[in-house]
Records
---
Amino acid sequence: MTRTHAAAAARRTRLDAALDRQTTRAFLDATAKPADYLTALLGPRPTTGSAVTAWDEAAHRVEHYRHHTLGLPYGTPATADNSDPVRRALGDRPADPTAAHVYDQACQPDFDVNPPLPL
């Protein structure tokens, strides 16, 4: 590896670490006071049970995408469009298939945000 490649790799490592710290901070903020785009996408944060873990994991995926891909700080909507919660949280779906796959993973809550009410 050349000196230039080593320097670039070291810089990339530092950038990834900084983005990971920002993502963690955003996630902690989300668990205390979820941003509007998160509650629009995921519903209110549950207070008990396994739904808390599922909501937290989904919120972390959203914030990871927002920080690592979009470069957005916590609380800033990706778009002013209030009619579509996915676009408000994550912006427009990329045309590139690889980027679109990452986007799709970020917007999947992996839990039922509107569970059926028991009869």
---
Amino acid sequence: MESSARPSSRKRLSKKRSRWYGNCASPIVRNRNSRDNTNSKTKIADKPTGTVITPPLTLSVVILSFNTKEITADCIESVYRHCPTIAGLDIVVIDNASEDGSADFIETSFPDVKLIRNTKNRGFASACNQGIRASYGDFVLLLNSDAKLFDQSLDVLIDYMLRNDDVGICGGTMLTAEGEVQPSCHSFPTYGNILFTKNWLLKPLKFFGKKFRKNREVPNHTSDVDALAGGFLLLRRESLARVGLLDERFFFYVEDIDISRRMWRAGWRVVIVPKARVIHLGGASTRRKPFKSYAWHHRSLFRYFMKHYPLLLPLNLLLGAGLFFHLIVSSAFNAIFKRPDKSC
């Protein structure tokens, strides 16, 4: 359920918890034959009698896998290699009915990972919600299977969350394999920016469309943004408990914008911290079916407007017709000229 205003009283995480305990480095079974579990339990320094020991923070990493066996394995290894120095690292992988043996491979290679096997493709939002429910961390990281972490990325995000307890979602910079910056944040969709980004005839009118097409470039410094891209999202579990999980009516795409909007409405901030970086290959699970990818994106966009602007039904129906026309024409154009998938 959404809350109309920021909670008047909130359970605050103590800033004294900025010191993290334990060692989350877990063996990567795929590359090692032996395992050392001597550091698997949390180690807390001795305290004077009568002192209350604050439980260490925990981080849950939720990864969605769909026919990306090797890429998902690389992602998991990246989490182990670059995890922050906190106790209780919790990795959950949801396999959305992969046909390439991903689930068996992950189960064998990473026995410490909690694996959920779906018998059908449940989509991004629904599968991520499964992972969130199965996890226990104070913070939940939604990480695309085709992403690889940089050193200190998670430390940077968690540290910012600890120092700013009004932040519900935090994200960072996503880079291509070549190091180019990808769109990592978004402005909320409006009828105006849809008109000027989906209509080829109006795209040349940059002067008139400029105010409708907000720049999606990553800022140079930590900033509040409308919404963050869903491939690298750190969520505070407390904020999820108040605003709800991802909306499963969005099968694929736009669910990240929707939950960002709900966070803002409930009084939580949405922040991008550019210093936290990941390599994001992009389209690893959708590249083979570009038309379906287009269709999912356009349908989710239409549902977003129907959900957040229900009183503008005639305008929404007109928007839906325009999106359908754009889907058919752009798919035909891409099929003929083999243009890369850039519509989403």
---
Amino acid sequence: DKVSQEEKQLVVTTKDALDRAVAAYNALTAQQQTQQEKEKVDKAQAAYNAAVIAANNAFEWVADKDNENVVKLVSDAQGRFEIT
């Protein structure tokens, strides 16, 4: 189940579009931050989410916790996780 190059590129492209939409929204004044402008960010977020799901970024459980490719999940006092 390898992720295709096209799927990887779509994730990169949609992430870039999302970042630009958020930056544009944040650059607006409070009066300019209308529902219509927020919907642009929401649309970009939905496209990025769909691209990530389509790419189905697979993971693999490994026993070697010292492996350089290990992603470590750490819970804070409120139960939230941070990837380190």
